[in-house]
Amino acid sequence: MRVLIIGCGAREHALAWKINQSPKVTELFVAPGNAGTAPIAHNLDIKATDIHGLLKAAQQYKIDFTVVGPETPLEAGIVDLFTRYRLRVFGPTKAAAKLETSKVFAKKLMYQYRIPTAAWSAFFNPQEATEYVKRQEFPLVVKADGLAAGKGVIVVNNEEEADEAISQMMEKKAFGEAGSRVVVEKCLTGKEVSLLAFSDGSTVLPLAPACDYKRALDGNQGPNTGGMGAYSPPGFFDDKLIEQVRKVVLEATVRGMAMGGTPYKGILYAGLMLTDGGPRVLEFNVRFGDPETQVILPRMKSDLMPLLEAVVDGKLNEQVVSWSDEACVGVTLASGGYPGSYQTGFPISGLDKMKDGALVFHAGTKVRDNGEVVTDGGRVLTVVDNGKTMAEARSKVYSHVAEIGFTGCYYRKDIAAEGAL
Ligand code: AMP
Ligand code: GLY
Q1: What DSSP string describes 30-62?
Q2: What residue owns the CA closest to ligand 1's atom 8?
Q3: I want to staple 232 with a disulfide (CB 3.0 to 4.6 A). Which of 213, 255, 295, 345 is the partner?
Q4: Within this chain, do residues 17 and 84 fall inside the same structural domain, yes or no?
Q5: pLDDT digits (tens, 9 = 90+) for 348-371
Q6: Which residue from 384, 418, 389 is spatially nearest to 401, judged by alpha carbons?
């Protein structure tokens, strides 16, 4: 089988690494890929958002199966387009992707199917939103309805901050059209966890859970990022809780999507807060998480390819997935300045010094003509390893990280520290 993976992050490198191990796969392509995918796949120089360019490439290279990494091509309708041309593709349709691309859509679905989430209201105009917040208790969370690259969520502690967030989103259009509608919701407290599941439209098959670290600096300080590290499994998210979330969140969502005429196929990712009152949904994503995927896939003992195919073919009920008991930790190495502005083009040293067991998933990297690997983005690498305990995995990862260097490199030192308890 000839497989195409779309995207260029460490998530897509991890997918390529795992899919490449499948005996079903004869040739692997990644568009656009990075320096990490180049040795194991053909990198195609096509942007993930250029869905017509990707269609042409899929036809030209006779691709049998396509896996979509990021949300932007899903929002652009890549699954609808490929399906129209009878190409097999893993991911939800544009209509089903609204679970992530519209928070108002997701909230309405949760309300309709009694899926536990924070109390909320949606607004189409800023005056109504500012009137509403006057009557609420703080803190609150103001969220842009549409995609905002992880930046469209602001926690506000008083009326002034709320008015500013509402004005930024709805009047000053800080996130473009994504902020023309906003959701205002109650701020929840507790431990955060990500539970991803395969869904074929009716059957749900959860993956191992994981925790990610969104803030840039140790102790969850600094601005939000795309993710500075992750670990799996979180000890506090036990089988009983997972079973509860499977029933009241994942299965209820998939049922609701089918009832609404937009059956959900692909990865359903529930971002959850485990509150004193039980698990609550913070958000849905319609794709593999980044960096969660980098710590989930190394724990997956099963071949990933038959699972992806079963999702597309509606045969997930015939599948099981087995997991290693080992703990897995991933640390993101980022360019100085990220998530703000940063420089690129710095040589990366130490990649040849990695010990057995180390997995280095590339994100913003590229190979120069002279073979040198240089930085090419904000998040540069996710360094991953396993261990019998979380503490062992963690200490192995940080010993690998210490070998790697590039100008301006920074990373968090506290990834999986809590999971080791
Ligand atoms: P979202 O894109 O909706 O997941 O929001 C991004 C991040 O904001 C989440 O991962 C949480 O850390 C935080 N967040 C979102 N909604 C809430 C909420 N209702 N209460 C507390 N934190 C939240
Ligand atoms: N880890 C958060 C995300 O993938 O959106």
Answers
A1: EEE--TTTTTTSEE----TT-HHHHHHHHHHTT
A2: 153
A3: 295
A4: yes
A5: 999 999 888 899 999 999 999 999
A6: 384
User: What range does the domain containing 393 cover?
Assistant: 327-401
Q: Which of 99, 102, 141, 154, when mutated, tests ligand 1's pocket best, judged by the most ligand atoms within 8 Å of its CB?
A: 141
Q: Please report the atom of ligand 1 found closest to the CA of residue 143.
A: 3
In a domain, 411, yes or no: no
Best residue among 102, 282, 286 to mutate for probing ligand 1's pocket (most ligand atoms within 8 Å of CB) is: 282
In a domain, residue 357? The reply is: yes
Name all residues whose Cβ lies below 6 A of ligand 2.
Answer: 212, 227, 285, 289-290, 292
Q: Is the pTM of this model over 0.90?
A: yes
pLDDT, tens digit (0-9, with 9 covering 90-100), for 131-175: 999 999 999 999 989 998 777 889 999 999 999 999 998 888 988
| Ligand 1 site residues, Cβ closer than 6 angstroms | 118, 141, 143, 153, 185, 187-188, 192, 214, 271, 282-283
Whether the Cβ atoms of residue 89 and residue 83 lie closer than 8 Å to each other: yes
Report the atom number in ligand 1 closest to the C-alpha of 118: 19
Pairing of strands 359-362, 379-387: antiparallel
Domain membership flag for residue 415: no
What total number of domains does the chain contain? 4
Are 76 and 97 contacting, i.e. CB atoms less than 8 angstroms apart? no
